[in-house]
Design a protein that fits this description.
Elements (H helix, E strand, L loop, with lengths): L2 E8 L2 E9 L4 E3 L2 E2 H4 L3 H14 L5 E8 L3 H19 L4 H7 L29
Parallel strand pairs: 3-5
Antiparallel strand pairs: 1-2, 2-5, 3-4
């Protein structure tokens, strides 16, 4: 049985995915994905790539997530799953690409600047 290994990133979150043919079981950091992602929208994000490709319940996914927050991790996992589906069946690529699952979202947190409280916020200006 072939195992497909891919990686997905979003903000500072990294998802390493090992996908193999199976019954649709998704395990994230040795926990069921419904335990790891407690809310419905996050669970929906994880399953989006399977829905677009029409592959629900056909693949078992083992994922290692690291860094970032829970939303960034869910989106990184979606990207890694989409890449793995493309690696398995190239015909799924146009549909996944159209939804934007194969493009790495470049938006990152802007760094804090010296002499300011945050990245863009300034201390109050006093003329006198």
């Amino acid at each position: 049985m072939e195992v497909i290994n891919t990686i997905g990133r979003r903000k500072t979150a990294v998802a390493r995915v090992y996908m193999s043919a199976g019954s649709g079981k998704i395990v994230v950091n040795n926990r069921d994905y419904k335990d790891y992602f407690p809310t419905g929208p996050l669970q929906y994000i994880v399953n989006q790539a399977f829905e677009v490709a029409g592959a629900e319940g056909k693949w078992d996914v083992k994922a290692n997530l690291d860094g970032g927050g829970i939303t960034g991790q869910a989106q990184a996992l979606r990207m890694a799953i989409a890449r793995a589906l493309c690696e398995n069946n190239i015909e799924d690529r146009p549909a996944l690409k159209k939804e934007g699952f194969l493009m790495r979202d470049p938006r990152m947190v802007e760094r804090k600047k010296a002499g300011q409280p945050k990245a863009r916020k300034r201390f109050q200006f006093s003329k006198r």
